[in-house]
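Observation: inputs received (chain + UFG).
Thought: call the complex predictor directly.
Action: predict_structure
Action Input:
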Amino acid sequence: MAKQVLVSGGAGFIGSHVTVELVQAGFDVVVADNFSNCDKTCYEGVCKILGCRPPLVEMDFCDLAAVERLFADYQIDAVIHFAAYKAVGESVAEPILYYKNNLLSFLNLLEVARRKGCNVLFSSSATVYGETDVLPVTEQSPRQPATSPYGNTKQICEDILRDSVKAYPGIKGIALRYFNPIGAHPSALIGELPRGVPNNLVPFITQTAIGKRECLSIFGNDYPTPDGTCQRDYIDIVDLARAHVCAVARMLDGKMEEPYEIYNVGTGRPISVLELVNAFEKVNGVKLNWKYAPRRPGDVTAIWADPTLANEKLGWKATRTVEETLASAWAWEKHLAGE
Ligand code: UFG
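Observation:
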């Protein structure tokens, strides 16, 4: 019988891609979302890609009774937890909102999951590493104090998971630390749907290219990097989604070596903002209107992953080129524009 995976926040950008990959890998998936930061577009896209409708539960993980009902209604073997707020700037302006939502939802989930003996995969972020001189970062690289309440919720949730699996031997946990997820599904039926002005680079690029935004600002060209712009490890969203399938399989097949495991999910390849912009223009044959602007507060100069552990233990490796990924991001933006 197929194992059933609960994907909290399964209608969002990462959750929708993970749902597709899980179902295609033979898992049953229950999608749960409160649609606070997304509409039904991506869920409908998921259904179109799959040709079936994974059960969708509209609920809020801050509501413990709702989480209990969910676990009573479905026989869940593992959980992947995405349901959280994710805007760095907003978290600085509204810390209570962020701490309450991101921590309470995770605590509720863990409380019920541990009663049911259900393993938990947590969506963490490379943001936990902060600014570091030693690159690439491995899972052993020290975490730096968080620079935003959002980043702090990622660190705290990692710690909650670590402490919980230690205290409750019936459950195990994995934290995946994502680098910069970009791109869209090759079908162009699901992708990123930022609300309002995008904070992240690639949606800002595609919206500028389509004419929704006038000009892309490249934040800072005086960083100590080869071309002066920041470097990141941009990971294709489908590659990222596949890492979840590998991690869930490891959990459910009893292959975990520790009760709590952490994996970097990145390519191991640094790309500067300027390189990314140039690659986007070249692969899609479009001219982008861009200018240099002052540094954005809070940005780290450079960060990229050492993904060796995930390569070896999860049997996972990033496969798509940045050109393929940027082409998929552009195809998605054009799909949204009805082209
Ligand atoms: N950038 C621009 N112009 C823009 C947007 C971004 O030049 O309009 C630059 C940024 O300065 C940065 C790079 O593009 O150098 C990437 O920026 P993103 O906002 O796309 O991604 P970040 O690396 O800032 O964000 C990542 C994760 C977040 C996490 C954050 C913590 O995507 O989830 O790191 O710092 F919270």
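Thought: report the result.
Final Answer: The chain is about 40% helix and 15% strand. The two ends are 42 Å apart (CA to CA).
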